[in-house]
Specification:
Elements (H helix, E strand, L loop, with lengths): L5 H24 L2 H19 L1
């Protein structure tokens, strides 16, 4: 199995961090739309990071 490129690891971690920030922001400010969208995107971003 080959190692992923370091740039892809950084990109996936950055995407996960941005989505997590929006999730926390949506929970703190009680904005339902932001919470729903960020919750939906957390799982694909983790899958991209793990892959």
């Amino acid at each position: 199995m080959t190692k992923p490129a370091p740039n892809l690891i950084k990109l996936s971690l950055f995407i996960f961090a941005i989505i997590s920030f929006f999730y926390v922001f949506g929970n703190l400010s009680d904005i339902t739309l932001v919470m729903v969208i960020s919750t939906t995107l957390i799982i694909p971003s983790l899958a991209f990071f793990i892959h």
